[in-house]
Amino acid sequence: MKAVAVSKFKDIPVVMDLPKPAVRPGTVLVKVAAAGMNPFDWKMIDGIMDDGKTKHQFPLIMGVDGAGTVEEVGEGVTRFKAGDKIYGQFIHSPIGEGSYAEYAIVPEKSGITKAPTSLSAVEAAAVPTAGMTAQQLLDKLDLQEGNTLLINGATGGVGSFAVQLAAAQGLQVIATVSDEAGAERMKKLGAAITVNYKKAPLTEQVKEQFPGGLDGLIDLVSKTDGFEANLDLLKPGGTAFTTQFVAEENALKDRNIRGGNFETQGSAASLDTLTLAIDRGALTIPVENKIKLEDVPAAIVLSRQAKGKGKTVIVI
């Protein structure tokens, strides 16, 4: 089978011809139809999980998010049967049996579940990590209807889900954009206000419109200095989360702001909640780019440079 993999950490990913995996007890063999790309995927090949505790194997096949059809089930599997359409996070131990491949082995107990009936496999593959991250961020923020929320990095995968879910909760969403096309898309997804950070400093524009401060911040892109500057946009007692792991406890405490660094906890239950929202038509799936396995190395370069726009899905 064809798969995008590396032979060692920090290697350049390439398309390889690898053996089709054999099903093991407690796992399902998935014929992968599509894989969603996330920055974590290239951080993984950089060695982010090379901590001496997490097993991994080479060639290390990339990819966390995927969607496809169960081709075979291993001994003891009860949740799925051959022919089921599934989606979710394929990541498990050993690291290296990812979704950037024509076939993948996934433990039944990992973060996979039945795919939404209303979505294509390509759309489903865009959902898991980005959708669960957005959903869990909003749960942690615990804002009330009518509260103001700034989403910095709104036009990306997580941001696009967060804008929709926040608007559905009755929050006043301020979304950052870099051009008019992005502003139009964010408005369609439910943003009340868009701020083009290329026209003037973000903090300057937001303070002008909201001199009394905001209730919440989701920052998906800033480094330490940028995140701390954005904290000054919040009211005392506000809440701020970053997915970039740049929050410093004292910086929040000094401003009487709760929150901090955020990490997604993937689970089948969390996905099932998203599935319900999707199948009742409450979410638009933000697939911006469809590529092939052969295009993945170039797409990773763009992602590393933060030049990728919207959600990219690999059609397999």
From TrEMBL:
InterPro entries named in the record: ADH-like_C, ADH-like_N, ER, GroES-like_sf, Lipid_raft_assoc_Zn_ADH, NAD(P)-bd_dom_sf
Gene3D superfamilies named among the record's database cross-references: Medium-chain alcohol dehydrogenases, catalytic domain, NAD(P)-binding Rossmann-like Domain
GO terms for MF: oxidoreductase activity
Stretches assigned to the Enoyl reductase (ER) domain: 2-314
Domain of life: Bacteria
Name this polypeptide is given: NADPH:quinone reductase
Classification of source organism: Bacteria, Pseudomonadati, Bacteroidota, Chitinophagia, Chitinophagales
